[in-house]
């Protein structure tokens, strides 16, 4: 399922490093910057793919690596343990459990292989400490809690291994909550009993709860059930594009009133109408699926898939969103929630920004700082958007840990 959503709107060749004003560049370099939703670990398991090398969209469709993080001034973020939604059979649940554990191991092995460049972060204060050492900090998050269905106690193990954010659900209903985009409609009318128990367990452990992808009812119930503020790690504004995956203004205000943070998504399909056709989607799926199922197992295969992808884009073109579209969502949400409750979670390597002119990969991030500066936001407010607000919530969650 993720292979259908992820990488869905790739269109441009690799962008040059963002050219911004000297003032904006200096500010961006001063700030501690994080992105709350990076799907980059899908690449970690591909043979021969090295995060210490500079990659490009036209060769392997990737958006994040260590050189480009440096070029784009991104100090770190939340790297995702993602599992495709699947069946509820015991066999499928075991497969989901094992997949998440394998992805966790792959991330930890990648960090161990690059100790001079990457470091695992466990507490909110670790981000600044690691960045000061010249390395990129890596927090761990889970998107889709299905790997915990057979044994919710596995959450304790994942926490001990570094997990600090838990996303309950993805594009289909699961054992814990309804999704905002399940074609079958609601199953639990919000949270399941197991979902409520999982939130309580996360509260006890000191894990942030992520409600991106959750249905409105699940969001409402989780907001009430959690003892700590919740997070939306990559979500945009329904007022600007009426997609079920986006959040309406009333709920954005409710999130802020409870102290939470919404991290704004750059996924083009949530910023504006994709105008996609079944033929286009089938062609894109054929080219991108191997990145998600692990069969893009050589540089040559990845190049051939990238070539096929760009051919599909030429054969089935769609209107492209821009940095302006992303900024409209960001500025609207800041106005609704208040500057203290907004951040950035672009969904890079999960299709975020890829079809958006001016936001194609992580090197474009200084452009956002330049836009925020031009809008008149103070340095402290911009620092909040780039991670300070989310880290404040993380400190609250840490303090509430039993």
From TrEMBL:
GO molecular function list: metallodipeptidase activity
Domain of life: Bacteria
UniProt-listed SUPFAM superfamilies: Metallo-dependent hydrolases (SSF51556)
Keyword Protease (UniProt): yes
Biological process according to GO: proteolysis
Entry EC number(s): 3.4.13.19
Signal sequence range: 1-18
Annotated keywords: Dipeptidase, Hydrolase, Protease, Signal
Stored InterPro entries: Metal_Hydrolase, Pept_M19
PROSITE patterns with a match to the protein in the record: RENAL_DIPEPTIDASE_2
PANTHER family: DIPEPTIDASE (PTHR10443:SF12), MICROSOMAL DIPEPTIDASE (PTHR10443)
The name this protein goes by in its record: Dipeptidase
Species per Swiss-Prot/TrEMBL record: Denitratimonas tolerans
Phylogenetic placement of the source organism: Bacteria, Pseudomonadati, Pseudomonadota, Gammaproteobacteria, Lysobacterales
């Amino acid at each position: 399922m993720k292979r259908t959503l992820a990488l869905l709107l790739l269109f441009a060749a690799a962008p040059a490093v963002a050219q911004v004003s000297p003032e904006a560049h200096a500010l961006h370099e001063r700030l501690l910057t994080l992105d709350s939703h990076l799907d980059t670990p899908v690449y970690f398991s591909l043979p021969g793919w090295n995060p210490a090398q500079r990659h490009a969209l036209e060769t392997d469709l990737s958006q994040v690596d260590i050189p480009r993080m440096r070029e784009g001034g991104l100090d770190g973020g939340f790297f995702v343990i993602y599992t495709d939604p699947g069946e509820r059979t015991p066999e499928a649940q075991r497969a989901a459990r094992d997949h998440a554990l394998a992805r966790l191991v792959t991330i930890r092995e990648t960090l161990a292989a690059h100790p001079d460049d990457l470091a695992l972060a466990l507490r909110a204060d670790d981000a600044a400490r690691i960045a000061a050492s010249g390395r990129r900090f890596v927090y761990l998050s889970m998107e889709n809690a299905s790997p915990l269905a057979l044994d919710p106690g596995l959450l304790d193990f994942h926490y001990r291994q570094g997990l600090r954010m838990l996303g309950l659900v993805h594009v289909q209903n699961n054992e814990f909550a309804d999704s905002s985009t399940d074609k079958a409609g609601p199953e639990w009318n919000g949270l399941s009993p197991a979902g409520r128990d999982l939130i309580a367990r996360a509260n006890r452990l000191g894990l942030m709860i992520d409600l991106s992808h959750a249905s409105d009812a699940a969001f409402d119930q989780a907001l009430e059930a959690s003892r700590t503020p919740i997070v939306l790690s990559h979500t945009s504004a329904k007022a600007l594009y009426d997609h079920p995956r986006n959040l309406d203004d009333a709920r954005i205000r409710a999130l802020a009133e409870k102290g939470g943070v919404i991290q704004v998504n750059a996924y083009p399909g949530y910023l504006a109408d994709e105008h996609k056709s079944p033929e286009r989607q089938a062609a894109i799926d054929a080219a991108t699926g191997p990145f998600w199922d692990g069969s893009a197992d050589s540089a040559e295969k990845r190049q051939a898939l990238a070539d096929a992808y760009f051919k599909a884009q030429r054969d089935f073109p769609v209107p492209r969103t821009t940095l302006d579209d992303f900024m409209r969502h960001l500025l609207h949400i800041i106005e609704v929630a208040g500057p203290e409750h907004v951040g950035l979670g672009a969904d890079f390597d999960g299709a975020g920004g890829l079809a958006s002119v001016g936001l194609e990969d992580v090197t474009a991030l200084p452009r956002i700082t330049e836009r925020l500066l031009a809008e008149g936001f103070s340095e402290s407010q911009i620092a909040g958007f780039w991670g300070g607000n989310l880290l404040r919530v993380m400190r609250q969650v840490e303090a509430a840990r039993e």
